[in-house]
TrEMBL record:
It comes from Cyprinus carpio carpio. It holds the Pfam family ATG9. InterPro entries: Autophagy-rel_prot_9. The lineage of its organism: Eukaryota, Metazoa, Chordata, Craniata, Vertebrata. This is Autophagy-related protein 9. It is found in: Cytoplasmic vesicle, Autophagosome membrane; Endoplasmic reticulum membrane; Golgi apparatus, trans-Golgi network membrane; Late endosome membrane. Residues 764-786 have a biased composition (Polar residues). Residues 1-20, 730-851 are annotated as: Disordered.
Length: 851
């Protein structure tokens, strides 16, 4: 491998996540007063299990699911061996006759071979014996793991009941934020973590998502080899569950991994002196794991084929068009994932954007393919109609060989053809659809905006939102392709991986080693083009791509309103919220020209959605909103929670249970002291956690209130995401577009840096969060904190950004250019990443209620 050096240096933690004076705190509790959950040694696994039990709706549901997984494995192997060795297919296909003394009718058991014959055929087949041995060992491993997990989850069940005061029957009615709030509360009593008196929301997220945050960051910095340039296929993405499993095995928990336990990076990887030796060691380890994958390839491939066959055959028969449906790719989930975003939060966002994404992809129906599909469907339908008519006339027609098969295949063919025929009554607007998609997924490359109608944009979006058939095919090919990616692509990045973990790992008190990007610190990882100008010290190498630091910070703050960010982050949030509120006030006054907030939200709908957006932008006062008519007139009207929920329903697929049982009749407004109204004000104003206010007169009302307020928080985040993209577009005008889809080794201009800084200085302050002046910046820094990529003027406190040449992988500077290996692949996006520079939306009317 190439031996080259990088310019990275280790980043110290920019702030402590502990209250002042508690940095080295060790809480002592007398033996007699210790609770069963005092000083849990492995808090990472503990919090992960608490989260998993909540997401699986309790101990019983989780136990039943685990048991069925074990049974499913036995069934797949046993049923496959039985079909291959114990069935006489000549009798089954009527190629051989069976003599019956009592009946001439052939039954299904007649096609089964005798037990002794079946057993002999199995014993004589070496390959079948080998498969059974491998499967047996794997099943025993799963069984031992199952028993161990049941013991651990029984303890978690006891924790829920005795510490959190939640029964298993009530878990489905509690949101995760409510569970998390109780965990934070009982820390004072039980001292789950003895290194801190108080836990924060970020502590819990860091422990649950420690390794996932690293993966999101590596994808964001284009470190993982998942993008390839192939002949004929062009730029493609290949990222499967098997490849992801191998990445995690190598980096985090496998033998010889970089971490010595769940919360600590091995000491040798924190020092830069032996980086070349560590890179060689990692390269050798990747090679051996790649060879092991190659040797196990036949077994894994057979399992993948069998599992896919048993899983999808019935679905395809029942719904042939399901293969033409789309799903978010694994790469897309990493690319679109925020730092510190839990699985259910991510899937909630992506599910809300699913319908708009499907409509956008359907805009690109090929006219030629449509013509062919219509005619093929006509011919197939004609033949099918004749066969059905003959069958109705005389059912003996079905006894004719292949008639039933022909009817089935013709039906499948017609269904597939219909999926290629667009709805003639549907009107498509790609730019508007792409804007709606952005409101939910929050990330999008700059060059997509204004080019939504181009097939290049569609092809790149298809890497995030792929056909289900493509997903299945990639998973089937994964056992064959994964070894070669490990051996020939990942090994050459060994030194960059070593440098990444050394430079972007920080030790947080009470948490351990975490990815520095997961701190969401705009000072260390902010991007000047994403409203962080003047507030970030990060060089181009330390900046997170695509505004991920800023967007992740806003998402986490909105999702966890009780969280107290560090001073710099609080300042950033307050400036952004104040800017959005001021722009909303301008909307109310009719000043809408060149207004980013109005431009961003104008595309969402024509009536209630726009009212809701205006209401959320306006913030604390109440749930009253503005009703903007089709002509654009602004008429103040008062709406209740019911109408707000209806508006949210038109933006995203809110559960239809919101409209059941007349919980919030639209005929009357809720009282001012109604819990939902009070909670809504608190959410948008004082920052009270909307999802913890679910104490209605019944579990149903409490859950309903949480759902409504959760939708308000989701919409608030959509507004901020759209607004930040608009501001990014304005700040990026005249600057070379930086995005991760097609990164090049080129110098980057810094002509617009001063303009960005000046724009940031003029941001108004907010009374919602405590703020500090720019001049206080140097005084806030830790003495051990270094400045990268810029210098601060000690008098004015202004920041001078320094731009350095653009290096491959978005930040890896290689001194030994002669020994460098070039990747054949334009780097990436993943379970996450791309950059945004957005053109204004064309104001075409789109009724959001259609999706």
């Amino acid at each position: 491998m190439a031996h080259f050096d990088t310019e990275y240096q280790r980043l110290e933690a920019s702030y402590s996540d502990s209250p002042p004076g508690e940095e080295n705190l060790l809480v002592h509790v007398p033996e007699g007063s210790k609770s069963p959950w005092h000083h849990i040694e492995n808090l990472d696994l503990f919090f992960q299990r608490v989260y998993n039990l909540h997401q699986k709706n309790g101990f019983t549901c989780m136990l039943l699911g685990e048991i069925f997984e074990l049974v499913q494995l036995v069934f797949v192997v046993a049923f496959t061996v039985f079909l291959a060795n114990c069935v006489d297919y000549d009798i089954l296909f009527a190629n051989k006759f069976v003599n019956h003394t009592d009946s001439s009718k052939v039954t299904l058991p007649d096609a089964f071979l005798p037990v002794d014959v079946c057993s002999a055929r199995i014993h004589d087949n070496v390959f079948v014996i080998f498969i059974l041995i491998i499967s047996g060992v794997f099943w025993l491993h799963r069984l031992v793991k199952f028993i161990y997990n049941i013991c651990c989850y029984w303890e978690i069940r006891s924790f829920y009941i005795n510490a959190l005061k939640m029964t298993m029957a009530d878990i489905p009615y509690f949101t995760w934020q409510e569970v998390q709030a109780r965990i934070i509360e009982i820390q004072k009593e039980h001292q789950i973590c003895i290194h801190k008196k108080e836990l924060t929301e970020l502590d819990i997220y860091h422990r649950i998502l420690r390794f996932k945050n690293y993966m999101v960051a590596m994808v964001n910095k284009s470190l993982l080899p998942v993008r390839f340039c192939l002949p004929l296929l062009g730029n493609t993405v290949f990222y499967t569950r098997g490849l992801k499993y191998n990445f995690e095995l190598i980096f985090f928990w496998g033998p010889g991994s970089l971490f010595e336990n769940e919360w600590s990076l091995k000491p040798e990887y924190k020092r830069g002196g032996n980086r070349l030796e560590l890179a060689d060691r990692l390269s050798s380890r990747i090679l051996w794991i790649g060879i092991a994958n190659l040797l196990l390839c036949p077994v894994i491939l057979i399992w993948q084929i069998l599992y896919a066959f048993f899983s999808y055959t019935e679905v395809i028969k029942r719904e042939p068009g399901s293969l033409g449906a789309r799903c978010w790719s694994l790469y897309g989930r990493f690319y679109l994932r925020h730092f510190n975003e839990l699985d259910h939060e991510l899937m909630s966002r992506l599910s809300k954007g699913y319908k708009a994404s499907s409509k956008y992809m359907n805009c690109f129906m090929s006219p030629l393919l449509t013509v062919v599909a219509k005619n093929v469907a006509f011919f197939a339908g004609s033949i099918l109609a004749v066969l059905i008519a003959l069958t109705i006339y005389d059912e003996d027609v079905l006894a004719v060989e292949h008639v039933l098969s022909s009817i089935t295949l013709l039906g499948v063919c017609i269904t597939i053809c219909r999926s290629f025929i667009p709805d003639k009554h549907m009107v498509y607007c790609p730019e508007q659809l792409l804007k709606v998609i952005l409101a939910h997924i929050h990330y999008m490359p700059d060059h997509w905006q204004g080019n939504a109608h181009r097939y290049e944009t569609r092809d790149e979006f298809a890497q995030l939102f792929q056909y289900k058939a493509v997903f299945i095919l990639e998973e089937l090919l994964s056992p064959v392709i994964t070894p070669f990616i490990l051996i020939f692509c990942l090994r050459r990045k060994s030194l960059e991986i070593i440098d990444f973990f050394r430079n972007f790992t920080v030790d947080v008190v009470g948490v351990g080693d975490t990815c520095s990007f997961a701190q969401m610190d705009v000072r260390q990882h902010g991007h000047p083009a994403w409203m962080s100008a003047g507030k970030t010290e990060a060089s181009i190498y330390q900046q997170a791509e695509d505004g991920k630091t800023e967007l992740s910070l806003m998402h986490f703050a909105i999702t966890n309103p009780h969280w107290q960010p560090p001073r710099e982050s609080t300042h950033f949030i307050s400036l952004l919220k104040e800017k959005v509120h001021r722009e909303a006030a301008a909307v109310q006054q009719g000043v809408i020209a060149e207004n980013p907030a109005f431009t961003s939200t104008h595309s969402q709908s024509d009536s209630e959605p726009r009212s809701l957006i205006a209401n959320l932008l306006m913030g604390p006062p109440s749930l009253a909103s503005l009703h903007l008519g089709r002509e654009g007139s602004i008429n103040p009207v008062s709406i209740g929670v019911s109408e707000g929920a209806s508006a949210l329903h038109s933006i995203s697929p809110v559960s239809t249970s919101l409209h059941l049982r007349g919980s919030y009749p639209s005929a009357r407004l809720p009282r001012p002291d109604h819990p939902a109204v009070v909670a809504g004000r608190a959410m948008t104003g004082s920052g009270t956690d909307a999802r913890t206010i679910s104490s209605g007169s019944s579990a149903w009302e409490g859950q309903l209130t949480s759902m409504i307020l959760s939708e308000y928080a989701s919409t608030e985040m959509s507004i901020h995401a759209l607004y930040m993209h608009e501001m990014h577009k304005q700040q990026s005008r005249g600057e070379v577009s930086r995005h991760t889809w097609h990164r090049q080794e080129s110098d980057e201009s810094s002509e617009s840096v001063n303009e960005d800084i000046e724009a940031a200085r003029n941001f108004p302050r907010s009374s919602t969060f405590p703020t500090t002046s720019h001049q206080e910046g140097p005084a806030q820094q830790s003495s051990s904190q270094r400045r990268y990529g810029g210098a601060s003027d000690p008098v004015s406190g202004s920041f001078r950004a320094q731009r350095t040449p653009r290096m491959p992988m978005g930040g890896w500077s290689e001194e030994n250019q002669m020994g460098r290996h070039h990747d054949p692949v334009p780097e990436e996006g993943s379970e996450d990443e791309l950059p945004p520079q957005i053109h204004k939306v064309q104001h075409a009317s789109v009724n959001m209620k259609q999706w």
